[in-house]
């Protein structure tokens, strides 16, 4: 099992920083297990992680502080940097004046107008966009995708790889069941490659998804990522009186539903990175499946638990 302190550190960091965070975490763990470490031990460990003695001591103190604070509340993911309370209120008012499917451009214009009227500095477009993601539970996904359905099944590639049981690294995918009325992630799975029909069926039929929704869906939609599995899904789900919107994958882009809920990133994990075939030399961190599930699970849970902006 992975320590909660390590997982928390990874949930707030970019995936590019994960290898260094994991390496330093392991070295500090090994150091703390030494009974009465000497200065020579400090120098040896500091050299391994490429830090001065002083910086390594600081790393040790940070770990001890994290262990003490590990039971405290975690920071909310997705809000971005803190901004002035009056700016927060301006964004909240602008969001309240627009429908759920409003464009970022329209919200920014409205925020600018409100700030000018109140004589305050306008927040950045990034700050506005990050707060638009907070109202994910207020977004009616089906209305924004122009389809009528209860659940939407979406999958998107993430910006890191999963190390499989055969020790081969494959692209990580997030498969999610999203409530189309509330924009809440009912259930999700992390996969080390594109999900197959059996994975989708298992996720739909999971008691967790149905208990969060309150009932079994009557109609589901799938996005373009799962296009190859539509025919098999139709044949299986029809026996459970669940209709599949077959035409949806032709128009709903891969990851579109996930992006409506989370924005362009899930925490600091990018959705739909550039395809590897176009950038074969692009470095991607590779982690174990258990660690990936823990990181994504915490981020998804926080997104579901975020208070709405109403």
From TrEMBL:
This is Uncharacterized protein. It comes from uncultured Sphingopyxis sp.
């Amino acid at each position: 099992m992975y320590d909660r302190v390590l997982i928390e550190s990874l949930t707030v960091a970019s995936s590019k920083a994960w290898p260094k965070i994991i390496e330093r975490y392991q070295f500090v763990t090994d150091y703390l297990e030494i009974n009465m470490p000497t200065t020579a031990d400090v120098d040896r460990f500091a050299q391994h992680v490429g830090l001065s003695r002083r910086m390594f001591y600081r790393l040790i103190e940070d770990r001890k502080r994290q262990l003490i604070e590990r039971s405290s509340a975690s920071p909310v993911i997705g809000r971005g940097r803190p901004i002035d309370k009056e700016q927060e209120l301006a964004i909240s008012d602008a969001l309240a004046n627009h429908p759920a499917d409003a464009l970022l451009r329209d919200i920014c214009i409205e925020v600018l107008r409100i700030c000018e009227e109140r004589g305050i500095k306008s927040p950045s477009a990034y700050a506005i966009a990050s707060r638009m993601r907070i109202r994910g539970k207020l977004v009616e996904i089906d209305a924004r995708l122009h389809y009528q359905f209860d659940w939407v099944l979406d999958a998107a590639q993430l910006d890191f790889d999963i190390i499989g049981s055969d020790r081969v690294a494959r692209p990580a995918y997030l498969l999610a069941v999203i409530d189309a009325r509330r924009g809440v992630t009912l259930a999700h799975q992390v996969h080390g490659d594109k999900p197959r029909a059996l994975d989708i069926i298992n996720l739909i039929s999971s008691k967790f998804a149905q208990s969060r929704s309150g009932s079994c869906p009557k109609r589901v939609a799938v996005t373009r990522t799962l296009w190859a599995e539509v025919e098999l899904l139709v044949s299986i789900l029809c026996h459970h009186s669940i209709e599949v919107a077959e035409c949806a994958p032709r128009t709903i882009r891969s990851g579109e539903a996930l992006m409506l809920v989370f924005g362009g990133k899930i925490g600091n994990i990018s959705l739909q990175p550039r395809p590897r075939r176009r950038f074969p030399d692009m470095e991607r961190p590779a982690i174990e499946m258990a660690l990936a599930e823990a990181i994504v699970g915490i981020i998804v849970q926080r997104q579901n638990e975020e208070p709405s902006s109403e």
